[in-house]
Amino acid sequence: MGCYVGILLGLILVLRWGLKSVNAWIYETNLGKKKIESLPPGDLGWPVVGNMWSFLRAFKSDDPDSFISAFVHRYGSNGIYKSMMFGSPSIIVIVPEVVRKVLLDDKTFKHGWPDSTIAIAGRKSFIGISYEEHKRLRKLTKTPINGHEALSIYIPYIESNVVSALEKWSQMGRIEFLTELRRLTFKIIMYIFLSSEIEHIMEALEKECAILNYGLRAMAINIPGFAYYEAIKARWRLATIMDGIINERRKKRETPLGITRKDMLDLLLECEDDNGRRLDNEEIIDTLIAYLNAGHESSGHITMWATIFLQAHPEVFKTAKEEQERIMKNMPPGQNGLTLNEYRQMRYLSKVIDETLRVVSFSFMTFREAKKDVEFKGYVIPKGWKILLWYRSVHHNPENYPKPKEFNPSRWDGYVPKPGTFFPFGGGSRLCPGNDLAKLEISIFLHHFLLKYKLERENPSCPVRYLPHPRPKDNCPGRVVNVSH
Fold this sequence. Notes:
alpha+beta
């Protein structure tokens, strides 16, 4: 009997070894012996799924960093590892200088988002287009979003909505804090891009964006009941709504009095290349979906986390509040509301936001693809392989940030991050074009929250869900209390 058990165990081990070798045989055999020997250490995982089960298991636990820790434990602290992620042979990078090099070298690397992700975001979205097209579209949209004049124009609208929302929430009793914040940031981004405050349109778009967002980092299983399938359906519904909005706007633009205020949609409709070609509906839809989705998700989540961290650290709350009180006290007589001048004085609050961005690492990694064979630190990254720049590990590395799990805004006092160690909004040519607007929104909210309110969480010990972005599983229910009364 023992003999049969031994044979069975042996067969299982051989089968396991064989299955674990399938991906290596498929993706490494044609590289040649010399190149194979120069690949980084790592593991291509199981056939088809690669390392995705390990990734999902880690990110659905209370320790998402265990995924990278397993590579470090098994293959050393070199910081470059081969893997099989999102359907492609990939190189995971957690070394700051290599992360920075990949982000800045557009001649050697291009965007590398999986086809499944591009199918959701749109083939003509920022993550799906070429470097030249991306540069042109970024140039078109950057100034109307992040420009000095644009930010000055947006401040009164953002501030009035923040003040109104906080007062409303304080009277509502129990709310889902994250849910309400996402609605607020979505309303703001809708105003900037579509000048629309029609409730039924906002609710429909926000709902579909939320579903779409959950599928961006899910396994590409296009079967009913899976997040990816639902995201594809949401993408179709979003595109249908957008197409109707665009066609309606085109009709309005045919009359001189049809447009009273130019928004981002107007600018996209007016955009044309050197040959006089204008953007078609698909190009505009993909651009708008990208901005609407990213523009409110990041701002809403980071605002929630900053509020939670402030409330959990009374000494930080006190320092931040005192700064905002000084700013209010020093405002010119007769001035109503904030301006960019006051915003630039929020130096400590800026550190609070940067520390929140570091700890949370909202976008924990991004994708690139090697255009040619390239060598880093003695390892070869083959042409066509994906490079996964793991920002979360860089932000949580104690060599870059002592006691990295600790929320400590004072670590930024007189501190300039070493190159390649801080990527809250990505980097290089693909730096998020709405980063300044996002920080402005967060700062205005925290300014008014610190002056008059506190958050009483219903379940402070609620576990965190890390996909697609870190958030309390219960969406942070609680009460916003007006303490100025």
